[in-house]
């Protein structure tokens, strides 16, 4: 997974960066998910704080920042570095696991398994490709490309060429780029396409669901836009794409996800727009208000715990209304 960095207009970016590094360490090396969440939460709070923090005590007044994190902020302010972080950065296991998890398809658990077999670097992986599954092999092949952010302008170019190809298969497809792009990001880690087709909706299942996604992928392969498939099912495609102009050195390989929504399109749109943290928060609110929300639909939770029928939705705002949450524009769904 790509390294997360705080936005540059953030006055507390230095603190956020070290907190995110500590969060990743807890998640990837120690598998301490509670500590991971605590660091991430603190980083998010600081990222939203408009003034630069000047002491640990001041940080501690913010929601989500406890004594231990406040002490680290104090240490960083006083010394310009953090002993814990220096120790972590120099630790062999951390270095190896951080390097191995740069490959998409290698999560912390797989990295640990490779590490225990003596595989400690990307170079080691290249010599032991037989041990890698299909996803990991593609991740390894394009590891340098996939780490490069995709500028917004380039996502727009992909959008145009992919829409054109899909509509040459069938003009009835709707095609929307979701993910960080729909949230207005200046650059994205991958490109997320959401498709729908009128012959396959929640109330009308007349088409061949399987072929709706497969024929689109086939077309994009023939157009040399999709270069590799990581996985494909009836509703989800994970793969690799590239703009067809091979002479442009910026046209490197990019990760692409395509989902064909088959239940309620707007629930799919909401989910696939994210962010992942925003989705978590919204699902939690839904539960508190007596509903279950996922990428397919929103349903009431009955008093006996049995789910009711999916509620019809006409726009994204409806979903917020149902759970009595104020509407949040896609651009503001980052936390
Ligand atoms: N998603 C989610 N939970 C996950 C993974 C994804 O809710 N565990 C949803 C929210 C994400 C969307 O899917 O915004 C797309 O996933 P990405 O991993 O592509 O994330 P983004 O597009 O938000 O960011 P990036 O620019 O890094 O791709
Ligand atoms: Mg994305
Ligand atoms: Mn994605």
Automatic annotation (TrEMBL):
Which Enzyme Commission number(s) are listed?
A: 2.7.7.7
The protein's name in its UniProt record: DNA polymerase
Q: Which InterPro entries match?
A: DNA-dir_DNA_pol_X, DNA_pol-X_BS, DNA_pol_B_palm_palm, DNA_pol_lambd_fingers_domain, DNA_pol_lamdba_lyase_dom_sf, DNA_Pol_thumb_sf, DNA_pol_X, DNA_pol_X_beta-like
- List, for all copies, the residue spans of the domain called Helix-hairpin-helix DNA-binding motif class: 57-76, 98-117
**Which protein family is it in?**
Belongs to the DNA polymerase type-X family.
| Required cofactor(s) | Mg(2+)
Report the active site residues. Answer: 72
List the source organism: Trichoplax adhaerens (Trichoplax reptans)
Q: What class of enzyme is it?
A: transferase
Q: Does the keyword Cytoplasm apply?
A: yes
A Pfam family annotated for this UniProt entry: HHH_8
Q: Which GO terms describe its cellular component?
A: cytoplasm; nucleus
The record's listing under PANTHER family reads: DNA POLYMERASE BETA (PTHR11276:SF42), DNA POLYMERASE TYPE-X FAMILY MEMBER (PTHR11276)
The DNA-directed DNA polymerase X domain sits at 10-334
MF term (GO), any: metal ion binding
Q: Where in the cell is it found?
A: Cytoplasm; Nucleus
Give me the reactions it catalyses. Answer: 2'-deoxyribonucleotide-(2'-deoxyribose 5'-phosphate)-2'-deoxyribonucleotide-DNA = a 3'-end 2'-deoxyribonucleotide-(2,3-dehydro-2,3-deoxyribose 5'-phosphate)-DNA + a 5'-end 5'-phospho-2'-deoxyribonucleoside-DNA + H(+); a 5'-end 2'-deoxyribose-2'-deoxyribonucleotide-DNA = (2E,4S)-4-hydroxypenten-2-al-5-phosphate + a 5'-end 5'-phospho-2'-deoxyribonucleoside-DNA + H(+); DNA(n) + a 2'-deoxyribonucleoside 5'-triphosphate = DNA(n+1) + diphosphate
Report the superkingdom from the record: Eukaryota
Which BP terms from GO are recorded? base-excision repair; double-strand break repair via nonhomologous end joining
Function recorded in the entry? DNA polymerase that functions in several pathways of DNA repair. Involved in base excision repair (BER) responsible for repair of lesions that give rise to abasic (AP) sites in DNA. Also contributes to DNA double-strand break repair by non-homologous end joining and homologous recombination. Has both template-dependent and template-independent (terminal transferase) DNA polymerase activities. Has also a 5'-deoxyribose-5-phosphate lyase (dRP lyase) activity. Repair polymerase that plays a key role in base-excision repair. During this process, the damaged base is excised by specific DNA glycosylases, the DNA backbone is nicked at the abasic site by an apurinic/apyrimidic (AP) endonuclease, and POLB removes 5'-deoxyribose-phosphate from the preincised AP site acting as a 5'-deoxyribose-phosphate lyase (5'-dRP lyase); through its DNA polymerase activity, it adds one nucleotide to the 3' end of the arising single-nucleotide gap.
What keywords does the record list, in alphabetical order? Cytoplasm, DNA damage, DNA repair, DNA replication, DNA synthesis, DNA-binding, DNA-directed DNA polymerase, Lyase, Magnesium, Metal-binding, Methylation, Nucleotidyltransferase, Nucleus, Sodium, Transferase, Ubl conjugation
């Amino acid at each position: 997974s790509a390294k997360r960095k705080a936005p540059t207009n953030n006055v507390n970016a230095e603190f956020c960066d070290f907190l995110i590094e500590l969060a990743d360490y807890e998640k990837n090396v120690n598998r301490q998910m509670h500590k991971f969440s605590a660091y991430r939460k603190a980083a998010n709070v600081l990222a939203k704080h408009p003034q630069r923090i000047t002491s640990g005590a001041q940080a501690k007044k913010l929601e989500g920042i406890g004594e231990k994190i406040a002490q680290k902020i104090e240490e960083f302010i006083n010394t310009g570095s953090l002993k814990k972080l220096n120790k972590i950065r120099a630790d062999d296991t951390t270095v190896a696991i951080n390097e191995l998890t740069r490959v998409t398809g290698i999560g912390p658990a797989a990295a640990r398994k490779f590490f225990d077999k003596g595989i400690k670097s990307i170079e080691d992986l290249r010599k032991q490709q037989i041990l890698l599954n299909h996803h990991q092999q593609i991740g390894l092949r394009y590891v340098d490309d996939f780490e490069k952010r995709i500028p917004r302008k380039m996502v727009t170019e992909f959008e145009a060429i992919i829409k054109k190809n899909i509509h040459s298969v069938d003009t009835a497809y709707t095609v929307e780029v979701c993910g960080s792009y729909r949230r207005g990001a200046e650059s994205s880690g991958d490109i997320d396409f959401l498709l729908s087709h009128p012959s396959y909706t929640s109330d009308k299942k007349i088409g061949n669901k399987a072929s709706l996604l497969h024929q689109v992928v086939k077309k994009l392969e023939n157009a040399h836009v999709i270069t590799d498939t990581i996985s494909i099912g009836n509703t989800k495609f994970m793969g690799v794409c590239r703009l067809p102009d091979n002479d442009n050195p910026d046209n490197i390989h990019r990760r692409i996800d395509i989902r064909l929504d088959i239940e309620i399109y707007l629930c799919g749109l909401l989910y696939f727009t994210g962010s992942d943290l925003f989705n978590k928060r919204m699902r939690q609110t839904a539960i508190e208000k007596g509903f279950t929300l996922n990428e397919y639909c929103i349903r009431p939770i009955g008093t006996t715990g049995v789910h009711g029928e999916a509620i019809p939705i006409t726009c994204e705002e409806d979903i917020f209304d149902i759970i009595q949450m104020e509407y949040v524009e896609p651009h503001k769904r980052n936390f």
